[in-house]
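Session log. Operator J.P. requested a structure for one protein chain; no other inputs attached. Running the standard single-chain path with token output.
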Amino acid sequence: MADAASDAERRVARVRDDQAGRYALAQEFYRLASGRRRTYGHAELSFMRWSLARGVLAPETSEAPGSPWWRAVNERLLRDKTEARLLCGAGPTGTAGARSVEYWTDFIRSPSPVRWYRAHNASIVAGYLEHEELAAAERQVERFMMNVALLRVLFTHAMLEQPRLALGRLAVFGPLMADPRHRAVQMFLDLGRSFPARYPVTTPMADTVLDEHALARMLDYGLIAPRLPALYEFSAESLAEPRLTALLDDGLPAYVWPHADRAIWYIGNTGPHLRAIARASGARLTWEPSPLAPVHRRARRR
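Structure written below.
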């Protein structure tokens, strides 16, 4: 009988250079499911469509090569889900090759929003930690986006499982808005509203940050930023991955991010609307505005 891990690896390898095939494999996990599991794919598949449209999943041999890092992290998610589905079906043998696969088998056997987030985020975090060398080869602006994508998905999980940690006085809205079965969750996980639509990004770092949609900046800087240490600690415990807390540098995102570049995270932390949403949720902005921010705002008005 086939081994589930080897079979999953072969299935992912077949679509490695086939973007439509990658999407079909991701979609198949939900489309072929019975009962409640069918409804859980909205956010994941929306993010993957954005990734495909940007070109990050394009084969490295194409005229416009994709990103080795984004491709590798996407493969980790595909492989974990595929292995779990095989283990829960008839035929393949073996045991889960990783904790993230175990979380997916738990979800398959008893679907729930909390189990979906635990499985999905475990695969994503494993991909981040496994492929730091690939991330280091990307442009600074792309590494900024990687950090934002990570903190967004960790925050959305906390909105569901620990809404008071994530939203403070606004906690009552968390479980409904973060439920992966509802399309509202795409508002938090879809980076299409936040960053340039094509890979690689060629606009300057500061312009890319300041061009982020106002609502997205309110989310990132007003709601999430003041809570990052508690958020990463919660996720590290929930996913049984203590290395996750090392992806912050004194409260600032630090995945493949040198300490000397910390000031870039302050650029977008300006405006009364950010302070207002922080106060409404019972938090306060902890990142001081950067002295660079006014300079960049003047440059953009010229």
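Operator note: The chain is about 60% helix and 0% strand.
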